[in-house]
Amino acid sequence: MAGNVHRATAAGQGNDQTRRHNLSTVLTALHHDGPQTRAELTRRTGLNRSTIAALVAELSLRGLAFETPATEAGTVGRPSPLVHPNSDVVALTVNPDIDAITVGLVGLGGRVHKRIRYETELPTVKKTVKIVTALVEGMQSELDSRFTVLGLGVAVPGLVRSDAMVTLAPHLEWREEPLAGPLTEALGYPVTAGNDAGAACLAESIYGAGRGVRELIYLNGSASGIGGGVLVRGIPLRGSSGYAGELGHTVVNAQGSRCHCGRIGCLETEVSRARLLEVLGRGSSEADHLDRLLAESDDDAVQIEVNRQLDWLALALGNLIGIFNPEAIVLGGFLGSLYAANPERLDEGVQEQTFASLVHGLRIERAELGPQLLTVGAAELVFAGLLADPAGYLARLDLPGEGVRPAL
């Protein structure tokens, strides 16, 4: 990003560090919880009114926030202005899967401006880059005229290193495939990549059914199988190499089918979107309508398959509850549809598979963000750097354009 982004002058290093921390606190509050008055920001941050006014002014000057007049019934004097995150500051997103590539555009505050699902068969990295480039170029005039693009976030159904190297995405048949270089070369934006279920877990914990939950298990079901994410004391569990959360490879059936990972009877071999669509007599293009298809079906074979999958899912959840002792379990993707088809069976199955003390007060819910979940999750991969240090992040960006545009 060009160097005309406005920067505030700090009195000293200590003051500068404090200011940056406070900018992060205020912008994160706006991004996660939406528009708030200056008075509300003062109450929730514990900062004084003049400090909040200065921070909001700087965020506005940088184009990350803007204010509108607020009316507060019953207040005396001039009402506190309402501060908004600037949703025209955006992240481009990509979610490659075995049957489609989805490209999105998400603004600060989690606002999804655009989501395009391009159906294709088992895309290679080269094909993915080609399709994404074509889709982004199709919206380039709108991007240039209206939005400030911070970068591109990619949510991959597989193991992804911090440098955006896909170590293994078995269903896509990707192994040791770099993503950042080819995508940046094609589009000119910095790239951040991560596991799709981990990104979805983060999004659902911010905007969805996991909001406010500190001990959370998230399971995502997609065309590529089942992935997971875990929050421990509100912090994503990453593991020593960043690969934690491969919950789809929890073994549930020693007499089951061989998984692509080499083991027998992994959860994702027994609980499968493809099996549900097959018994329904439908193709993958209709997967977004799985709720309706399951609800409308009166075929006994469909109910038998739904119950079979719910029983294996209950067994897996019982194991995971014993390990993590969560407050809540959130089910996304086709797992949400599976749960909605017969929630009582899963709830009862989980009760049978674990100690009563571990499930006391436990909530099992489906994800709330629906088809937009992975799009919002991929955007959070990009926004994380901005939220941690708004001033420093903008200063480090090296993108084409004139920098962050002030909101109108």
TrEMBL record:
Its keywords, alphabetically, are: Kinase, Transferase
Give the domain of life. Bacteria
Read off the lineage from the record.
Bacteria, Bacillati, Actinomycetota, Actinomycetes, Propionibacteriales
What is the protein named?
NBD/HSP70 family sugar kinase
Query: Which family does the UniProt entry place this protein in?
Result: Belongs to the ROK (NagC/XylR) family.
- Give positions of region: Disordered: 1-20
Output one GO MF annotation.
Answer: kinase activity
